[in-house]
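From the methods appendix. Each design record in this collection lists the discretized structure first, followed by the designed amino acid sequence. Records were kept in a plain field format so they could be parsed without special tools. The example shown here is representative of the layout used throughout.

RECORD:
C-ALPHA CELLS (281 positions):
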C-alpha cells in the first residue's frame, strides 16, 4: 500500500484581459476498488461561482465561471490518495465470448466506437487484424497490440498537440502518452475489444522513499476489457501499478481533459502545468 500527496497547479496566462470564462476541471483522483481519495481540495483564482459533480464516466468534475475581467486563471489541486497493490487479471473471454458484447452492455458499447481522436487508419486496422488473426485470446492480442504501438511511436514532446488524432500520430510515428493511448485504443476497438482512455498521475521513481518530493507527471494510459478491466501503460510498456493514480476514464482525451473551457477575448492563452507527488506512506 502507498499513499501520495499530490499537488497539481495549472491554469492560463492571457495576453490581454478576458471579460469572462466558463470552465470544467478534472483534477481530483477517483475512488476505485484499489484507490481511495482520503482528502482533496481545489482552489481557483479568481472565482465567481462553482459546482461539483460526478460525470457519466465516474470522474470528479468542478465546473466554474469567472464573470469579472481577469488576465490569469490558476487552479491548485491538493489530494491525499491511497493505492492498494493492484493484481492484474488478464481476463479469460474468448473471441466468441467477446463477439457482440457491446449489444449486451451499454458501458462496453460506449468503449467500442471510434471517436474523432481514435478513428483508425488502414494501417492501424491491418496491424490490429493481423494480431487478432493469430492471438489465442483477446487479452493476449490486447497486450501485443499495446506493446506494438508503444514500440512504433517515438516519445517526442512537441511533435503533436492536444487535438492530434490517432491517424495523425500514426503517420508521424511520434507523440506523447496521450497520443500513444489514442492509437492503442483505436486499434483495440477496431477488433472488437472494449478499450477506454485513462488520465491521471504517475510517480516517476519506481520506489520512492517516504517523504520524497518528486516532480510528477500528468499521464495517460489505457484499460481494455476481456472479462475484467485491465490497466496497461503502453508508453512505458507495463501494467499499471501503485505508481499510477487514476483521475478519469472515458472514450478519449476529450472526456477527461484536466482543464477546459471557453472565454471572451484575451487572444491565445498560455497553459501552465506543474505536478508534485510526495510519498506519504
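DESIGN:
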Amino acid at each position: 500500500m502507498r499513499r501520495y500527496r499530490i499537488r497539481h497547479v495549472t491554469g492560463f496566462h492571457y495576453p490581454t484581459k478576458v471579460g469572462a470564462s466558463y470552465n470544467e476541471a478534472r483534477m481530483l483522483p477517483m475512488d476505485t476498488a484499489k484507490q481511495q481519495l482520503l482528502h482533496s481540495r481545489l482552489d481557483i483564482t479568481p472565482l465567481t461561482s462553482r459546482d461539483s459533480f460526478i460525470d457519466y464516466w465516474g470522474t470528479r468534475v468542478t465546473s466554474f465561471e469567472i464573470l469579472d475581467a481577469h488576465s490569469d486563471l490558476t487552479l491548485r489541486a491538493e489530494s491525499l490518495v491511497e493505492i492498494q497493490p493492484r493484481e492484474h487479471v488478464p481476463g479469460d473471454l474468448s473471441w466468441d465470448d467477446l463477439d457482440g458484447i457491446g449489444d449486451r452492455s451499454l458501458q462496453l458499447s460506449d468503449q467500442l466506437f471510434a471517436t474523432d481522436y481514435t478513428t483508425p487508419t488502414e494501417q492501424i486496422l491491418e496491424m490490429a487484424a493481423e494480431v487478432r488473426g493469430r492471438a489465442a485470446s483477446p487479452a493476449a492480442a490486447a497486450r501485443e497490440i499495446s506493446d506494438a504501438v508503444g514500440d512504433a511511436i517515438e516519445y517526442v514532446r512537441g511533435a503533436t498537440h492536444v487535438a492530434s488524432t490517432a491517424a495523425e500520430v500514426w503517420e508521424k510515428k511520434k507523440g506523447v502518452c496521450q497520443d500513444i493511448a489514442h492509437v492503442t485504443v483505436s486499434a483495440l476497438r477496431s477488433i472488437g475489444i472494449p478499450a477506454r482512455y485513462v488520465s491521471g498521475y504517475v510517480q516517476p521513481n519506481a520506489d520512492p522513499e517516504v517523504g520524497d518530493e518528486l516532480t510528477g507527471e500528468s499521464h495517460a494510459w489505457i484499460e481494455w476489457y476481456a472479462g475484467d478491466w485491465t490497466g496497461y501503460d503502453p508508453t512505458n510498456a507495463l501494467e499499471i501499478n501503485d505508481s499510477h493514480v487514476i483521475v478519469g476514464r472515458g472514450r478519449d482525451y476529450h472526456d477527461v481533459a484536466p482543464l477546459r473551457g471557453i472565454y471572451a477575448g484575451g487572444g491565445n492563452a498560455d497553459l501552465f502545468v506543474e505536478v508534485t507527488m510526495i510519498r506519504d506512506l
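APPENDIX NOTE: Residues 95-256 form a domain with the C8orf32 fold fold (CATH 3.10.620.30).
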